[in-house]
Amino acid sequence: MLVVILLLPLIGAGLWYVLGRPGVFSAPAAAPRSNAPDDDEDFLRQLEVWRRQQQREAELNQREADLKRKEAESGEDHTDPEDHNHNGSAGNPNSKDN
Question: I want to staple 89 with a disulfide (CB 3.0 to 4.6 A). Which of 18, 30, 61, 95 is the partner?
Fold first, then answer.
């Protein structure tokens, strides 16, 4: 039993050295590419797309705010464009007055 306890670690280490070491029998791996974001063209392209979308959204929000502000300013003295007729029945073919 003592012999097994002494020889098992030696046999295991020898087997790992021969069979288990990574890269001994495999082809050499290609040089690893840099993972820095500024070297990745896809990342930079996606970043530019995201930036343009943010800019468009900001412009649209600004336009919407301007339109709402103008509507609020002009709405104070502006009448409803649908209310051309003051009596409400002049242009309506379903009206009883026609």
Answer: 95
